[in-house]
Specification:
Rossmann fold; alpha/beta; seven-stranded parallel beta sheet; 12 strands; five-stranded parallel beta sheet; elongated
């Protein structure tokens, strides 16, 4: 039986994914790499990390023949791509296997917000049903939804919402050849939409994109869903808006500080909080592990 191929763990990765890869690869972390001899380090050509984990430059420096880094996820903001390219290293993310689950989750969060699904669960558990009717929700069909970022994920969100009868408009760097209307101004999109779904890339280019001005334009009946990155929203402005009721609600799968969000979120009844779990499905893990095995040369 041949020895398993060594793969360097260059950053954090989900433990369940690592367990599924372990039978076929010898996954070596920083201390294990340091303990290897020069010849063994030189034999490692594949690395593994995640979009949230980035890469440990010190480890890269210890691996003179590293050629490929497989990254779990679609995000690229944690990587210095020009630096990696200068080292002759190819970065291979896994955006395709994240698309469907994230888009589906975004739609689920919209349903949860508008139809009071989470708050109605608490309503029943508290025994309030015996005291009266639950509050009315809102119909998703017919709503004007603005998509911020029409990449792979945003396009699937738009298609799903359009199929549900929503009026979809999007904004981004440029218009695309799609059925939905392009609005070049984020401010105008917020002004005209019932709600915004954030599916744009993270990084400095979108940091604080959704701030106090955009939230004010969205208005007291508006809502925000974020399946992008926590950095895309100015969280202080969002918290102020939610606490004042100057927007109706938010559903967040991502935060500026993970896994411990700002504690002000915890007391808000008009905010649904999720643990960065948009792709937590068995199907995603199956497809992701298959993709990683291919990228790592199995």
């Amino acid at each position: 039986m041949s020895a398993r191929r060594k793969v360097a763990l260059l950053g954090s990765a989900p433990p369940d994914v690592l367990r599924r890869l372990a039978p076929e690869f010898d996954l070596v972390d920083g201390p294990a790499v340091s303990a290897l001899g020069a010849a063994e380090r030189a034999s490692i050509i594949h690395g593994l990390t995640s979009a949230m984990g980035g890469v440990d430059r010190g480890m890269v420096a210890d691996l003179p023949n590293l050629a490929v880094i497989a990254s779990i996820g679609a995000g690229l903001e944690k990587f210095d791509r020009p630096w990696l390219a200068a080292q002759g290293i190819e970065l291979r993310p896994t955006p395709d296997v994240m698309t469907e689950d994230t888009a589906e989750f975004a739609v689920g969060l919209l349903f949860a917000l508008l139809r009071n699904i989470v708050s109605n669960d608490r309503f029943v558990r508290r025994g309030d049903w015996a005291k009266g009717r639950a509050p009315l929700g809102l119909r998703l069909s017919g709503r004007k939804i603005g998509i911020v970022g029409l990449g792979r994920i945003g396009s699937r969100i738009a298609a799903k919402l359009a199929a549900l009868g929503c009026e979809v408009t999007y904004t981004g760097r440029s218009s695309k050849n799609v059925a939905w209307r392009f609005e070049p101004s984020l401010a105008e999109l917020a002004r005209s939409a019932d709600g915004l779904v954030l599916s744009c890339a993270g990084g400095e280019g979108t940091r604080g994109l959704i701030g106090a001005q955009i939230l004010d334009l969205l208005g007291p009946q508006g809502f925000v869903v974020n399946v992008s990155r926590g950095s895309v929203i100015d969280e202080a402005a969002l918290l102020d808006a939610l606490e004042r009721g100057s927007i109706a609600g938010a559903a967040l799968d991502v935060f500026e500080t993970e896994p411990v969000p700002n504690p002000r979120f915890l007391g808000l009844s008009n905010c649904i909080l999720q643990p960065h779990a948009a792709v937590y499905t068995e199907e995603n893990r199956r497809d992701l592990v298959a993709a990683l095995k291919h990228l790592l040369g199995a």
